[in-house]
Amino acid sequence: MPLGDGPLIVQSDKAVLPDVSHPEAGAARAALAPYAELERAPEHIHTYRITPLTLWNARAVGFDAEQAVDVLERYSRFPVPPALLVDVAETMARYGRLKLVKHPAHGLILEADDPPILTEVTRRQKIQPLIAKPIDDLTVPVHPSARGQIKQELTKLGWPVEDLAGYVDGESFWQGGSGVVVLPCSADKTIVGAASMAQAQTTTLILVTNTVAGRQ
Fold first, then answer.
1. DSSP H/E element including 72
2. In what order do the strands lie in the sheet with 47-49?
3. What is the pLDDT of residues 102-123, one digit of tens each?
4. Which of 21, 23, 7 lies closest to 78 in space, CA to CA?
5. Which of 24, 43, 95, 128 is the most exposed place for a label (fewest CB within 10 A)?
6. How many other C-beta atoms can be found within 10 angstroms of the C-beta atom of residue 138?
7. Spatial strand order in the sheet of 98-103
């Protein structure tokens, strides 16, 4: 659509403001959802925020930077700040440069596609207790119990890990009586929760992090 007609106002601070009265607002919000998190939802202008985590979550479920840039440019009312588009592309490109995989001899390993990346992260104080001596300049063993922690720490460092190590098959959380559903943004966690409540047919306590999530 021509510039000046779109429903989104894309700001340089990575806030995206949909005009909900616009006829294309619904389509724009649906297209934006994989890349941004809803922060506020007043009556007329909502606020979404693009963050590294939302972009990496989008990459984790198969979206790429070209698609994200297309959404912003296609629905924006004004020209999108070029620096923001560059930042989106560079941020999304970091996902998958590090991978967690299973090695037949060394167990769980962290694998980099470029030696300087592995050197950078393994020098960090919070990473060192989670790993063993490097196998080579691209791979280092990870203590099995540190799988979740190393993923969290590397995400904080700006190097999100693609976890390809797999899991051991077990009971579903419903069959086991309890559990945690972990899915990226826009991967239907809400649907899983609603289906569970429908099956349980009992009073349910729902905890949320903010008012916007409560209204949703």
1. helix 65-75
2. 8-10, 15-18, 47-49, 37-40
3. 999 999 999 999 999 999 999 9
4. 7
5. 43
6. 15
7. 139-141, 107-112, 98-103, 161-163
Contacts of 5 (CB under 8 A, 6+ apart): 77
Q: For residues 56 and 58, what is the distance between their CA atoms, to the nearest angstrom? A: 5
pLDDT in tens, 65-97: 999 999 999 999 999 999 999 999 999 999 999
DSSP labels for 31-55? HHTTT-EEEE--SSB-EEE--HHHH
- Residue type at position 208: V
pTM for the whole structure: 0.79
CA–CA separation, 134 vs 132, rounded Å? 6
Cross-strand partners of 8: 18, 76
Q: Is the pLDDT assigned to residue 185 strictly greater than 70?
A: no
Count of Cβ atoms closer than 10 Å to residue 141 Cβ? 18
Neighbouring residues of 146: CB distance < 8 A, sequence distance ≥ 6: 129, 130, 131
What distance in Å separates the CA atoms of residue 38 and residue 46, rounded to the nearest whole number? 8
- C-alpha–C-alpha distance, residues 96 and 77, integer Å: 32
